[in-house]
Amino acid sequence: MANARDTVPDTMAAMLLTGHGDIDRLEYREDVATPAPGPGQVLVQVTATAKNNTDRKAREGLYPTKGKEEVTSFAMGGSPTLTFPRIQGADIAGRVVAVGEGVDTARIGERGLLDFNLYPDARADINLAPDYYGHGADGGFAEYVALPSRQFHHIPNPDLTDAELASMGMCSYQTGYHMMTAANVREGERVLVSGASGGVGTALIQLCRVVGAIPYAVSQPDKAEALLALGAEAVIDRGELDTFVDRVLEATGGAPIDAVMDLVGGSMTDLFIDTMISDMSARATYPRLSIAGASGGNISEIMWTRIYLYQVQIFGVSHGTREEAAQLMAWIEQGALKPVLHAAFKLSELHEAERYFVSRGNNYLGKIVIVPDAQWETHGAPFALASS
User: Facing residues of 292 across strands?
Assistant: First the structure.
């Protein structure tokens, strides 16, 4: 192992997830062994890690695939990979301080952003067994983390702070981009984005504009100004479900939505489909629905005759591919995508961040990042909540 300096400590501070349950299962420790980079890996000193909803859902075991009451997490590869204790945190920004065998020492000192996936194989265009750092392997809620060199992308942009860079992590942006590529979203198409104020939603609005599509955001009225500034063509109030479809069509001038990016599920999914099939003669392509979340409910009641008679194509999306990650990193480095950072919290205050995330109010937009206490003054304090 080659080090940037001889001061990488033997132990570090980290937040350990000790089992499924509430936030009391997250234990802050300052005596966790610092990982060493293996062959093909880099050791990263973490400066900021974005928080994602999957952190909470994995902790609470909210990924059932067989029974509604099942308490479990990702097991797409055949067996669960979340073992305890685990360090969560997928969207990691930081600097390389050591390299393992086979990695050029010139990488030491680089600032970068992680492609968070634990890929099942080397294929670049498909990912059939999604898993990720912070779930199947330790992540960034710590002072140091060992990561694959090829997945820690050098992002030197001086205009982006480390906290802002972490807020652009792949868990949100790659999920959003894969929702779009799965549904083959094209230039000029009208795209309805649910959950538009969260990390994936704000990423989708920007990504639509990058590829030339027209995003219509579903959110609360108090967030309309910020979402319009981000690139939304219009913001549709998610309330008053009886008039929701009419209000979407009013926003589009009566034209049907071409594709829906659904992060909500539940009773909203049927309404989202209605926005696409209101006038099939006005369509140029099949109606397409990409779903990558179920914040509004894990069970939806849908008439299958509506799906096959209207030829609605449904795409389940989890994570993305190496090719998509590489494209996103290029857009970030080019400045084509902008950070939407809400606030930063100290690593030792992760319990407070979790409570805030669950009960976030009307002013919430974008991402929360977690910063190691030792890095706080440089990388976290400028983005602390006013009340912190």
Answer: none
CA distance 195 to 7: 44
CA distances from 202 to 36, 97, 130, 132, 174 (A): 35, 32, 22, 21, 12
The proportion of the chain whose per-residue pLDDT surpasses 90, expressed as a percent, equals 83
> Mean pLDDT over residues 331-355, rounded?
97
Residues ≥6 apart with Cβ < 8 Å to 174: 115, 116, 117, 319, 320, 324, 325, 328
Q: What is the mean pLDDT of the chain?
A: 93
Estimate the share of the chain in helix, then strand, then coil, as percent rounded to the nearest 5. 30, 25, 45
φ/ψ (deg, to 5) at 211: -90, 0
Q: Is the domain defined by 2-168+339-383 classed in CATH 1.10.760.10?
A: no
Chain-centre distance for alpha carbon 151? 16
Query: 171 near 325, Cβ under 8 Å?
Result: no
**Mean pLDDT of all residues in 140-155:** 98
The reply to whether omega before 130 is within 30° of 0 (cis) is: no
Domain with CATH 3.40.50.720 in the chain: 173-316
Mapping DSSP to helix (H, G, I), strand (E, B) and coil, where does residue 245 land? helix
Q: What is the CATH number of domain 173-316?
A: 3.40.50.720
Sort residue 217 into left (φ over 0), alpha (ψ -120 to 50) or beta: beta
3 state SS of 16: strand
Q: How far is CA 287 from CA 61, 177, 178, 189, 315, in A?
A: 33, 18, 17, 11, 11
Per-residue pLDDT reduced to its tens digit, 299-332: 888 899 999 999 999 999 988 999 999 999 999 9
Q: Rounded to whole angstroms, how far apart are CA atoms 32 and 10?
A: 8
Amino acid residing at 277: I
